[in-house]
Amino acid sequence: MDQTPTPPSHHPVIVVGGGQAGLSMSYQLRRHGIDHIVFEKNTIAHAWKTQRWDSFCLVTPNWQCQLPGFPYPGEEPHGFMPRDEIVGYIEAYARAIEAPVAEGVAVTAIRRRPKGGFSVATSRGEHTADQVVMAISGYHVPAIPAFAARLPAGLRQIHSSTYRNPSQMPDGAVLVVGSGQSGCQIAEDLHLSGRKVHLVVGSAPRCPRVHRGRDAVDWLADMGQYDLPVEDHPLKEDVRRKANHYLTGRDGGRDIDLRHFALEGMSLHGRLESIDGPVLRFADDLARNLDNADAVYTGIQGAIDRHIAAKGIAAPEQAHYTPLWVPGPHAPSLDAEAAGIGSVIWATGFRADYGFIDAPAFDGRGLPIHTRGVTPVDGLYVVGLPWLHTWGSGRFSGIARDTEYLAERVVELRAKRSVGESLSLAS
Asked: Which SUPFAM superfamilies did the record assign (predicted)?
């Protein structure tokens, strides 16, 4: 990519990030006639290209791909796009909306200017902007626990973002740490290939793929669950820290049932508490974690049942889930070498890193303080985060609403500043 420095330039709005959130923001700004530029440090849809495994596919139906002005164009609205089709969808969107994306331009610092607006340092020179939209998600740095360093040097360790396929892993069993969406799907990928898998099970909930003859996502959308704003959720802002439900769109979509995997030979363990060389020690919480995940699963089934009854909808009957397997007595430790474990995949998520932004818009954990993406700093916004406003915010289905709201705030601030400048000149 061309890294020739560019001369300093001013933009009414700078959007940082060329994924689906940044592109959607670009669409809305152009619709409002606002000049802007999108800086993308890599390429459009980079994370989808480089941080997803070969068999990855959406867990939500294709019909939820509703980028503003560009609904899903394919012939399988109830299918689940694989990784390469997702990349194609996003790249096609960028072309269709003629987004002004500068690829290969990393934003290295953002600072407020004394008289308003922002200075934006990039790998290709200095820029200024009246307003800035951060569309870089919150998944910046792989979160691998410090005690990973205590594992034997010969045991290969990778983060889930660099996993591609089973053949990539050394011979032997694989320990997958984490049972969120990535951990469960990677464990399934390895398991289906015939590899012995040890899965460390955490507190992530799970969701049925199909209930009463229809995809659960379709039911939940009809019930308004993806439109529920964060302020109306029982957990309020704490919901932003909850793990996503695990299920899969693989092979046309299905449940992920860890108990079923256990019956087929996958070894399940409670939370990983400590590491002492090859010795792994686990919490006695496996049964509780499985039970809690199933309680969410059957809770969703029950909510759908009540919706069907209330609306008088004709739908086939379906019994609620009952456990297929229960754990035996707790085994507090496992010797990785004796168990033949040759590698570890840390499916332990990411941490956010907004340290390049010099503005009082972040809490004690370094996360953005915002209401619907509007931070306390005039002209600084965030978008593309889970539960930015609703459950749909972290999905393709909710980004249009979020970016339209922020575009309206951009327009309002421009008008407010214009009036202020006019009054200043008049005085």
From this structure: FAD/NAD(P)-binding domain
